[in-house]
Write a structure and sequence with these properties.
alpha+beta
Length: 246
């Protein structure tokens, strides 16, 4: 069996799974393409291998400061956090707290306990959280605009923002995604459901030799299989939902 590595090979794999070329699959090429796109979107939304955590680096422009948002790439489906802007422990000069503690308190790492150093940094982070807080974020994947509710005068054109986000695993870039067994089964199931949908209106029509169309049965089988695959996705391949505390 040839493992599909391109969209064309994946399409032919799904059609062969349904019986091609022994059986004629009464589905248009555009319909097949639509069902594969639908399967990919479901795969990206729910499968733990359908997306990956990434740290997206973005350079601020003058237009961004005026708009008070940054434009995210199309393949970003969710934004979780951004690295703190203006953090007291993130400065890269002699006024950095890390530098001052190391200069005055940590003469050597072998004879001095690291516990006070760790507690001091934890305390500073706690004070920043209480007095300054994190920058609130607003993001919608269909708009692709990340709004950061903060004082934008803290940033200058040319500065960088690091965004913690989730990016889809694009099979056009990572061809191994086409070999995912669940995706193959789900895409074939959607094509089968479309096949049954196309033939439903011919149910009861007899062909020469007594052969009779039964598109409704194909549709019902595909619908039941789809429900089973989506249930399998939720219980076996989706990451558990995290609690929200507010």
């Amino acid at each position: 069996m040839t493992v599909p590595t391109t969209r064309t090979q994946f399409t032919e794999f799904c059609l062969r799974k349904l019986g091609k070329p022994v059986i004629e699959i009464n589905v248009d090429d555009d319909q097949v393409s639509d069902r594969i796109d639908e399967a990919l979107k479901y795969y990206w939304d729910y499968h733990f291998d359908g997306s990956e955590k990434t740290y997206y680096k973005y350079q601020i422009t003058t237009e961004d400061k005026e708009n008070k948002y940054i434009t995210m790439p199309e393949n970003i489906i969710g934004v979780v956090n951004i690295f703190d802007i203006g953090s007291a422990i993130g400065l890269n000069n002699i006024f950095n707290i890390r530098y001052q503690i190391a200069l005055n308190d940590l003469y050597t790492l072998t004879s001095v306990s690291m516990v006070p150093y760790y507690m001091a940094l934890t305390h500073v982070q706690f004070l920043e959280q209480m007095l300054i807080g994190r920058q609130p974020l607003r993001y919608n994947r269909h708009i692709n605009k990340l709004y950061i509710d903060m004082d934008w005068d803290l940033l200058n054109p040319g500065d960088y923002i690091i965004v913690e986000a989730y990016m889809v695993v694009d099979p056009a870039v990572y061809s191994d995604a086409w070999s995912d067994r669940w995706l193959q089964r789900y895409a074939a199931c959607l094509i089968k459901q479309q096949w049954g949908q196309n033939l439903k209106k011919f149910t009861g029509m007899k062909l020469p030799g007594g052969i009779e169309f039964n598109g409704q049965r194909i549709y019902d089988e595909a619908t039941a299989e789809r429900e089973q695959l989506e249930k399998e996705m939720i219980y076996s391949y989706s990451l558990p939902a995290t609690d929200m505390i507010g």
